[in-house]
Amino acid sequence: GAFSQIVTNLVINSLTHGLEGIENGVITLEISKKEGQCSLRHSDNGRGIPPEHIQKIFDPFFTTRRSRDGSGLGLHIVYNLVVRRLKGWIDCTSTPGKGTTFTITFPCTQP
Predict the structure, then answer these.
(1) 67 pLDDT higher than 80
(2) Which residues make Cβ contacts (< 8 Å) with residue 88, sequence separation at least 6?
(3) Are the CB atoms for 102 and 75 separated by under 8 Å?
(4) SS3 annotation, the chain
(5) Within a 10 A sphere around the Cβ of 43, how many other Cβ atoms?
(6) I want to staple 70 with a disulfide (CB 3.0 to 4.6 A). Which of 43, 63, 84, 97 is the partner?
């Protein structure tokens, strides 16, 4: 449940924000396991996130699409699922014009 909701929200976020209007958009999901830790890496080759927004993206109700039905809850939900439910952490890196990558790491064995 939590894992599928995380992936769904990340994909929707890429389609809605990063790849809108881009003809050759690519979303890549990579899953790996090392020393008891599982990692999910979600990346796209879209617009990227401006540096001034990176620190706010996990905040509740932060959106750049308020005028177009954006609630600002998608990445906040992802953050809470990763940290509280999976007992992991999430990192985001982005270069405007080149895309965004979310890296999620969590224990492979859940309590």
Answers:
(1) no
(2) 82, 104, 105, 106, 107
(3) no
(4) CHHHHHHHHHHHHHHHHHCCCCCCCCEEEEEEEECCEEEEEEEECCCCCCHHHHCCCCCCCCCCCHHHCCCCCHHHHHHHHHHHHCCCEEEEEEECCCEEEEEEEEECCCC
(5) 20
(6) 63
Contact in structure between 5 and 37 (CB atoms under 8 Å): no
Q: In what order do the strands lie in the sheet with 27-34?
A: 27-34, 37-44, 99-107, 89-95
Predicted confidence (pLDDT) per residue in 69-111, tens digit: 667 788 999 999 999 999 999 999 999 999 999 999 999 987 6
The residue type of 67 is S
The pLDDT, as a whole number, for residue 40 is 97
Q: How far apart are CA 15 and CA 27, in angstroms?
A: 9
